[in-house]
């Protein structure tokens, strides 16, 4: 608990948000009804699920597989950019960035590749990709849950933006250096298939909760039970500062 508190208090964005919230008390009286508990609960369940995916090494295995399929450094970077773009659609932009950037940095250093430009494109990709789905970022979650936007309406609005963003990223990626790729010697990570399937089922359950098919309180409860059963450490890895900024 102390570790979570220290990490939260080190978050500068959280501290700025907290200061603004305290200042707002001077011009109005807040109400408990003003808090969107549905969005907070959904985001909490989603972050728990993502941390389970990380703990099960599924994301690491995916990055290793992409590296094996790459023919040169440009293609490797493009794969990571697409992974950030697509991953943010399901894992949220913040989680995609915090998960993939460290993985890419390790690989890029092994290849003696400059990381500034590729990382910039990955951050752009995560933020642009997250706009495509209702669970891509907290703002989309709020729009869907508060205004009851149905799936068809949402994707009708987000699809043109997604296609334009993808085209822009592909164009910008052609300025990445194209060098021979040296496959690094990586340790084979084992994956528990049953736990991986359970985490995947949990992700589907969360999506069902977002669209009102299942009560959010039940989704949060099941997510906590699954996380506790698979790996209790995931509770310590959740970005609680992000929840408090929603």
Written description of the protein model:
- The protein is mostly helical and 246 residues long.
- Helices cover 73% and strands 0% of the residues.
- The protein has 13 helices and no strands.
- The longest helix has 22 residues.
- The radius of gyration is 19 Å and the shape is globular.
- The mean pLDDT is 79.
The biggest beta sheet is recorded as: none
Structural class computed from helices and strand pairing = mainly alpha
How much of the sequence is in beta strands? under 5%
Alpha-carbon Rg, integer: 19 Å
> What shape does the CA trace take?
globular
Q: Indicate the low-confidence ranges by residue numbers.
A: none
Helix content: over 70%
Number of helices: 13
Q: What is the average per-residue confidence, as pLDDT, rounded to a whole number?
A: 79
Query: How many strand elements?
Result: 0
Distance between the termini: 21 Å
What is the N-to-C order of secondary-structure elements (H for helix, E for strand)? Answer: HHHHHHHHHHHHH
């Amino acid at each position: 608990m102390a570790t979570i508190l220290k990490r939260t208090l080190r978050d500068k964005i959280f501290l700025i948000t907290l200061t603004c919230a305290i200042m707002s008390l001077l011009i109005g009286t807040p109400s408990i009804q003003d808090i969107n508990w549905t969005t907070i609960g959904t985001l909490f369940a989603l972050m728990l699920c993502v941390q389970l995916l990380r703990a099960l090494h599924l994301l690491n295995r995916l990055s290793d597989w992409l590296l094996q399929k790459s023919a040169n450094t440009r293609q490797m970077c493009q794969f990571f950019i697409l992974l950030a773009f697509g991953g943010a659609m399901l894992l949220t932009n913040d989680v995609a960035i915090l998960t993939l950037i460290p993985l890419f940095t390790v690989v890029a250093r092994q290849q003696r590749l400059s990381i500034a430009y590729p990382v910039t494109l990955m951050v752009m990709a995560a933020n642009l990709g997250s706009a495509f789905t209702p669970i891509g970022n907290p703002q989309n979650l709020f729009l869907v849950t508060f205004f009851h936007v149905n799936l068809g309406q949402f994707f009708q609005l987000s699809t043109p933006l997604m296609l334009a963003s993808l085209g822009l990223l592909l164009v910008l990626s052609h300025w990445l250096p194209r060098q021979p790729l040296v496959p690094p010697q990586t340790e084979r990570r084992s994956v528990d298939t049953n736990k991986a399937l359970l985490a995947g089922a949990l992700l589907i359950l969360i999506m069902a909760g977002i669209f009102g098919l299942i009560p959010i309180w039940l989704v949060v409860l099941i997510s906590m039970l699954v996380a506790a059963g698979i790996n209790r450490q995931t509770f310590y890895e959740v970005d609680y500062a992000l929840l408090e900024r929603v």
